[in-house]
Every structure is written in structure tokens, then in C-alpha cells.
Amino acid sequence: MKLTVDLGRGLVLKNPVLLASGTCGYGLEFENFYPLSEIGGICTKGLSFESIKGNPTPRIVETSCGMINSIGLQNIGAKAFVSEKLPELREKDTAVIVNIFGYSLKEYIKVVKYLEQFEGIDGFEVNISCPNVKKGGIQFGTNPKMTASLVKELRKRTEKHLMVKLSPNVTDITEFAKVCELEGADSISLINTLLGMGVDIEKRDFLIKRKMGGFSGPAIKPVALRMVYQAVKSVKIPVIGIGGITNYKDALEFLLVGAKAVQIGTANFFNPKAGKEVVEGIKSFLEKKKINDINQWIGSIKDE
Amino acid sequence: MKQALLFLKDKKTYFDYAILTFLTEENDFLKAKPGNFFMLQANTLLKKPISVMECNKKDKMLKFLVKKVGKGTEFLYNLKPGEIIDAVGPSGNTFPIDKNSEYILVGGGSGIPPLYFLSKQLNKEKFVVVYGGKSKKDIVPIFGKSSPTIITTESGDIGTKGTVIDGIKKAIEKKRFKNPVILSCGPEGMVKAIKKYFPQFKHYTSLEKYMACGFGVCLGCVVETVDGYKRVCVDGPVFDIEYLKDFL
Ligand SMILES: Cc1cc2nc3c(=O)[nH]c(=O)nc-3n(C[C@H](O)[C@H](O)[C@H](O)COP(=O)(O)OP(=O)(O)OC[C@H]3O[C@@H](n4cnc5c(N)ncnc54)[C@H](O)[C@@H]3O)c2cc1C
Ligand SMILES: Cc1cc2nc3c(=O)[nH]c(=O)nc-3n(C[C@H](O)[C@H](O)[C@H](O)COP(=O)(O)O)c2cc1C
Ligand code: FES
Question: Is the model's pTM score more than 0.90?
């Protein structure tokens, strides 16, 4: 059974299952639950050049079939990642995709330039879609001109795989997908969280401190599936599907509409074994259907 | 830390509280220490953090005390013997204990389980528990007669009428403690009051924060310390109160 997928520019995953940024820390915590070699790869917590303190609390709340977070990209910074996490992480037999973030074009460039030199980083995922910071991030993901100039500048500075993570908080996702392809991105991943909000009628207050935050989990899956499908239809580069995936069936749905790989996010919190279970589930499903290469399943939906 | 199943062997309820006794085949689960907690599956999307109240390797047993306050804890309260739930843990640090110090363990409501667990490991001469609540409905009869315990209720229908502050004063008098260490777990207001009345004592508190993962990856549970944000689930839940910005 062949589960490998080729995302381009040398990034080949042993199977199409990744853990999503911000839901798996720097990956190592998951070794408590299964060997990282079981999954295709991990996307680290978003890294900036300097460390970021993050937002005030409360930062998270559960909603119907989902959750809202406002972490604010708290992270240890690129240098600490390289010295404290990467040495152990790169020994693992799994792809390490470093999710990066900056408050300005300059900062995005700085973090990519710095990380570019290190072996063991198999690719970058550029977060242009975080709803939890005042400036930067989502501005690059909701204005196609800014998306274009960012991708163009980063492409000039890296030989590694360049994945761009798109925001669902836009009217026409295909516009952004096309811009990324045109400016040299190797792949696009979507969706990041939807902008959401929750309030408490007893306390007459907001449920999280910064009022609005990123909405994720099973509740967003239909929106994610629709956007992934639209993106697949509009570009030739690989699309990585994210949003509400909790089990192998969800993952197979995204692959069926054409995603070349998937990322598991919120499900890691309530079922830390989700990554491994999704890989096993996909495998036995394909066996049952007598499909011996995952690439025969990808994009095979009846669609005229 | 592991993810595995818990089998509910026995349940006892007391007003809004349930004592849940589970069996498990996961050896790592049975390494739990006082202060540690598990993320327990409920009918909510996210699992619920609940402290270990008792852990017994020989019987492969883990005990929890749950107070129903919302959807998830109500589900746990209503579990029936024979039912199985998924769990992740044990997570968190433990209380710093040295043999020579004297301890006052102060808890209220759902904050009592880690202190109960700890009390079983301390020398009876060296500690006293102060267990506070609004009324007798909040005082679950878990401590035996031989355990040094002072109960305080605001209504006075059981124990001393008053708050845990009165309880701590009484404890110091009775035990003639010179320089006790306070170990607390309970509502923020209670912990703040203790710190205000007894600033001279070393004080460690076990915090409760909303958690999504419980094993250090979401950064949702952080608390502001003098060293920046720390994760309550893995850097805590037990902190030296001098270290916490909210209590300065
Ligand atoms: C480390 C730790 C150990 C805990 N140990 C125990 C225990 O041994 N026994 C026990 O009964 N409870 C314990 N709790 C508290 C318990 O986790 C919460 O009461 C529970 O998550 C509430 O979920 P719910 O769905 O029932 O209520 P919800 O509907 O989510 O909330 C009901 C109310 O509880 C508050 N709340 C929700 N989650 C938390 C939380 N994590 N901490 C504090 N307040 C919260 C909400 O603000 C709301 O006012 C512990 C919490 C932590 C962080
Ligand atoms: C707590 C939390 C933190 C996140 N942090 C990041 C981040 O640092 N960078 C990023 O690109 N996406 C981040 N995300 C978004 C996820 O990677 C994912 O795109 C989103 O949650 C949707 O997938 P899901 O429904 O499976 O969770 C975060 C999500 C959550 C829930
Ligand atoms: S609950 Fe996720 S980091 Fe603490």
C-alpha cells in the first residue's frame, strides 16, 4: 500500500497526515502517545524571529462542536527553537514544517532568512491568517496585493518548500490561492481559524479577554471542505486541507475533493492519538476498497 | 503521560459532589502524585481537568472527586458503574514537601482532592487540613476521624462558623505551628484572602484554569508569573504564590 504524497520541491510525506500548527506544540509532546514516525509530519507552533509573550487570559473557550482561541502567537522565538527543539525533532523520522509569522514583511523575511540555513527543517508554512494579533498576520492574508508581495519576497529567500496558509475570512478564496501559485508558492494550506466570538449572559461579558478569536474544531468542517474544494479547482499546486478533522473519514473527505494532504488541529487536544488513528483508518479503508495508492483516491470525487 | 481508558467501578454522591472510583490497566496512570490531574472525557468536545484524589497501584485504582458546575462535570457526576471513559494524564507537577516543615492544607469546593491525596502521605504531627465551604453541603465527608481536620462553614451548620481564615488561625493555635507552610487549592478569592491575612508564611497554591489540551501544547491555560506566562497544566498547577502576578 502506497501512502506517500509528493508536495513538491523535495517535500515528500510518508503519508498525508500532518499535525496542524498551534495544536501540537513543537511536536515532541506527542511522543507520549505514539512515535512521530507514524505520521507524515508536524507543523510547529507559529515562530517569529523574537519570542512573543501572547495575549492576556482567558484565551480559550469551548463552543458548540468547536472552540475559540486567542493565544496571540505566544512562542519561544526562532533561535530558541533551533537550539532547544530542533536537535531532538530532526532525529524523528517525520517531516518538520516550521510555521512562521511576522508583524511586518521585514520580520517574515528575517525569520525565513535565519531558519533557511538549518538542516532538519523540511519546509516553511507561512501563516498569513492569524486572527489573534493586532497587526501583521491576517492583513497579509486578506489583501491579495500584500499576499503577493510577501510570497514573492519569501520565494526569493528560500530553497525549502514554501507552503502558504490561507485565511477563510475572505470573500473569494480562489483569488488568494492563485496569487500564491503565481508568486512561486509550492503549496497552500487551508483553512486557518474563522473569526469568532462568544459571550456570557450571566456575567454580561465576553468569554475571552480579547473578545474575538479563532474558531476551530468539527463545527468548521463544512466551511473548510468547501474552501479546499474551491482552491483545488483554481490552482495546480498541492492544496493541504485543514479544518475540523477528527477521524479518518473526515480526512478521506478532504482528500476525495482533491487535498493532497491534511492537517489535524483541535482534535489533538481531546484525542492526542488522533494523528496515528487517522493514518491507520485511511490505510484500512483503502485496503477495503482495494485501492493500493492513496494518490488514486485524491481528487477522485465524481465531479462533472 | 498516556492516553488510556478508565473503568468506573464505584460511585458515591454527596449533594453536588460525586466520588468516582475507576480501575485502569495503564501503569503510567498509577504513577499519579498529589497535585497531578487527568483530562477526563465528558460529553463536551474538550476533556475536563480533574485532580487525582487517591491512587493505588496495587488495586489499579484511581479516585476523583467531581463537583457538578456545568455540562461536562454533570456528565461525570452522572456516570454509572460499568461505564468506560477515555482519559489523558497524569499531568502537572506536585507539592514541594520536606519532612521537617509543618503544613496547613487549605481547600474549598473542588479544591480539596489534591490536598486529601497529599494528606495521606504526610506525618499526622506535621500537618492540619482546613476544609472550608458555604454550608455542610460543601463538606464532603472524606477525611476520617483520625485525620487532623478543621472544618469551617459560612452557615455554621457544620464545623466552625466562619471562613478558612478563621480555620487557619485555629490551626496555628491548636498545633502551635511556628512557621507553617500553606498549601492551598480553591477559588481565587479564597487564596487571595489567605495571602492577605498570612503574608508571612510560605504559600504554594494549586491553580485552576480553563484547559484545552492539558499536556502543554495549546498555550490556553497560561498564568502570568514574574517570569512571563507559564502553562498551568505542565509548569503547574502548583506554584509558589510569590511567583504569580495576580497575587502580588
Ligand atoms: C488542574 C485542575 C484540577 C481540577 N480538579 C478538579 C477536581 O478535582 N474536581 C472538580 O470537581 N473540578 C476540578 N477542576 C475544575 C473543573 O475542571 C471544572 O469545573 C470543569 O472543567 C467545568 O466544566 P463544565 O463543562 O462542567 O462547566 P462549564 O460549563 O465549562 O463551566 C461552568 C463554570 O465553571 C467555570 N470553569 C470551567 N472550566 C473551569 C476550569 N478549568 N477551572 C475553573 N473554572 C472553570 C466556568 O467559568 C463556569 O463558570 C479542576 C480544574 C483544573 C484546571
Ligand atoms: C489553540 C490554537 C492555536 C493555533 N495556533 C496557530 C498558529 O500558531 N499558527 C497557525 O498557522 N495556525 C494556528 N492555529 C490554527 C490551526 O492550525 C488550524 O488551522 C485550525 O485550528 C483549523 O483546524 P482544526 O479545526 O482542525 O483545529 C491554531 C489553532 C488553535 C485551536
Ligand atoms: S491546557 Fe493546553 S497548554 Fe495547558
Answer: yes
